[in-house]
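Example 497, ligand FE3-S4 cluster.
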Amino acid sequence: MEGLPLTPTLDGMTTARTYEVRTYGCQMNVHDSERISGLLDGAGYVPVQPDSTPDVVVFNTCAVRENADNRLYGNLGHLKPVKDRTPGMQIAVGGCLAQKDQGLITTKAPWVDVVFGTHNVGALPVLLERARVEQQSQVELLEALEVFPSTLPARRESSYSAWVSISVGCDNTCTFCIVPALRGKEQDRRPGDVLREVEMLVAQGVLEVTLLGQNVNSYGRSFGDRDAFGKLLRAVGQTGLERIRFTSPHPRDFTDDVIEAMAQTPAVCPSLHMPLQSGSDAVLKAMRRSYRSERFLGILDRVRAAIPDAAITTDIIVGFPTETEADFAETLRVVEASRFAGAFTFQYSPRPGTPAADLPPLAKDVVQERYERLVVLQERMTYDGMLAQVGRAAEVLVSQGEGRKDGPNTMTGRARDNRLVHLPRVDGVRPGDVVETVVTGAAPHYLRAEGPLLSHRRTLAGDAAEAGRTPTTPGVSLGMPTVGVPMQAPAEVPACR
Ligand code: SF4
Ligand code: F3S
């Protein structure tokens, strides 16, 4: 046990130090947290048991939400008395807000032991150890990525569904967005590395993979292949995966070869998250998003022509500083024409350091009133989309910890188009298993399938979930995967804002 992080106990013995990772923000952060857990496991820490106080708390932060910093400092304040009465406890802050606030974090909260950024996740175990030995806070942030994060080990959250990064960073300059400043320039991962990671996950029973990048459609530019994303979809479709998803695409770079690859690869799910942000061409221009509404609608038409039942979701920002009532009317028009299955809707709020933050904001009540109108419209469209499913057969991947209605009588899963489905619990059906059923009812945000199952397929993922195992992936070239532990909260915001 020499060299492992240990905590002395009252009887003079030592136990492995425990950790908890608290995740905020998008899927990127959720996946980075899987890597943080994998790294800490590798360094000899163990996940804390529920209702126990961990020896190490890691905050993996997001900078997108308004007041994200107030929330972080509030949380750190709550933890201070716990740390004061827990000898040896350490607090680490990483992620996008750490990359943004840097040394400010230990100035405002000097009881924080480690601050690390988005480019040096791999340094966390060393920084924790150094802080413990030197009894001094360690702040280490890099301006650029040194190691592609997927070369780090990961402890996955789910037995059946996994994230796989294909790129990190973003070369776009949307004027409202802080992400490029915090995640850096786009770096693409080699297709062979992506495929190897997918294959390892498939071998451990994973049925569904979501390919992750801030702009998946620019994938390949760095190695000179503009068609690389479509090719990657086809190649991932050959690995034995049952469900392939990806996020986020960008309307500017979304080409017809990707639509073809989606339609011709049976494992690619009939769902697409396509960020609109605004329906007004003038606002899109001011946002420096270089597509226009007609191009956006044209993409949706071509996707629906190739994949008729595709459920398309989006992100929309209301109240960008230059948005007029006429611009907003354009957003309503495009939303109505797009028939989105769902939308993340946001009221614009400035991010210091972005170009749009220097523009005079709109009045709050104007933004609120427009936002409410948009939500009413989108809720109607979401519900219409749900109602259209009633009577249809659905293949459902049973999930774990996802349904608020889950209980002794109800289980939950996702249809191939990513709609949430609640079903009566059936003995022997485990999370990770696949069932076929018929949709019998719709609510604004979920479907019901109350009849008997048409079929039930036991899967390797279901076996793993039943045994409490989730896959782990080592750093891509470091030996064979082993098995690991539990599930975490879902992402709060989409990958591309
Ligand atoms: Fe990049 Fe998306 Fe941010 Fe635009 S909104 S800069 S595409 S991450
Ligand atoms: Fe970072 Fe994702 Fe938030 S990239 S700023 S954690 S939305």
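Summary: Confidence is low (pLDDT under 50) at residues 476-491.
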